[in-house]
Amino acid sequence: MHVAIIMDGNGRWATNRGLCRSAGHIEGAKAVHAIVETAVRAGVQILTLYAFSAANWARPPAEIAALMHLFGQYLFTETRRCVKESIRINVIGRRDRLTESLLRSVEESERASALGSRMHLRIAIDYSSRHSIVQAAQRAGRDADFSVGHFHHLLQEADYGTCAAGAVDLLIRTGGEKRLSDFMLWECAYAELHFTDCLWPDFDAQHFQNALDDYAGRQRRFGTLTAHQG
Ligand code: FPP
C-alpha cells in the first residue's frame, strides 16, 4: 500500500501558541518521526511525505533556511534508525536548488538505507508534480514506446525516485484544506482522499489509524463496475 501525506498546519499550530512558524516545523518533524514508526507497524509499503513544494521557495528566507536545516537534521538523526528498521529513504523532487550540504545528506541517507526492504520512505523536497510531468514528457517525446506504464517510469526518473513507486492508494491531507497543491497529480489518479482538520504537529498514531480505517471502508472501482476493498 502506498500512502502519501500533505503535511499542512505547522504554521497555524505555532501561531495558535504564540510561537514563531519555525517552532511549528520543529514540532512537525517530531510528528514525522512518530508517523514513520506508525506506518511501518501498520504494514505500509511506501510512504511519501510532502515536506517542501517548489512553490514554498516564495516563503520568507528565514523560514526556508529553518526548514532546510530541519531536513538535514532529520536525515542525519533518522537514517541510522531507518537502516536498523530496514526502511529505505529516498528524496524526490528537484536537486539542483538544494544546498551542497543538504544534497550530501540526501545522497548519504539514500546510500546508507538502499537495502531497506520493509518500507520505502520518500520525502518530497523542492517538489512540483507539474514540473516532474513536464520533465518526463520531454524525455518521452524522444521515445517511440509511449505508454502509461512507460510514462510512469519516466516520471519516477524525473523525480529522482530510486526505485519504482506505484500509484498512490491513500492520500492524506492535514490542516483542513482540501486540495492537492501540485502533489503527485499523476500518481493520485485513483487515490482515495482523506482530509482532516487536524494540524500536522497534532497528527498522531490514532489519526493515522483513522485514515487507514476510512480507506479500508472505501470501495475502489478504478472506473470499472467491480469493487475492490480499500
Ligand atoms: C505546511 O504547513 C508544512 C510545510 C511547508 C513544511 C513541512 C515540514 C515538516 C512537517 C517538518 C519537517 C519535515 C521533515 C520531513 C523532517 P504550513 O507551514 O503551510 O502551515 P500553515 O498552513 O498552518 O501555515
Explain the overall architecture.
With 230 residues, the protein is an alpha/beta fold. It has a single domain, classed as 3-Layer(aba) Sandwich (Undecaprenyl pyrophosphate synthetase), CATH 3.40.1180.10. It has 7 helices and 8 strands; from the N terminus they run βααβαβαβααββαββ. The protein has helices at 10-15, 21-41, 61-84, 100-112, 129-140, 148-158, 205-216; strands spanning 2-6, 46-53, 87-92, 119-127, 170-173, 192-195, 219-220, 228-229. The longest helix has 24 residues, at 61-84. It starts with a strand and ends with a strand. The model has no long low-confidence stretch (mean pLDDT 93). It binds farnesyl diphosphate. Farnesyl diphosphate is lined by residues 7-12, 25, 28-29, 32, 49, 51-52, 56, 67, 70-71, 74, 123, 175, 200.
What attributes characterize this protein structure?
globular; 230 residues; single chain; 7 helices; Undecaprenyl pyrophosphate synthetase; 43% helix; binds farnesyl diphosphate; six-stranded parallel beta sheet; alpha/beta
Quick take:
This protein has 7 helices and 8 strands; from the N terminus they run E-H-H-E-H-E-H-E-H-H-E-E-H-E-E. By secondary structure, the chain is α/β, with parallel strands linked by helices. Helix 2 (21-41) runs parallel beside helix 3, helix 3 (61-84) packs parallel to helix 4 (100-112) and helix 5 crosses helix 6 (148-158).
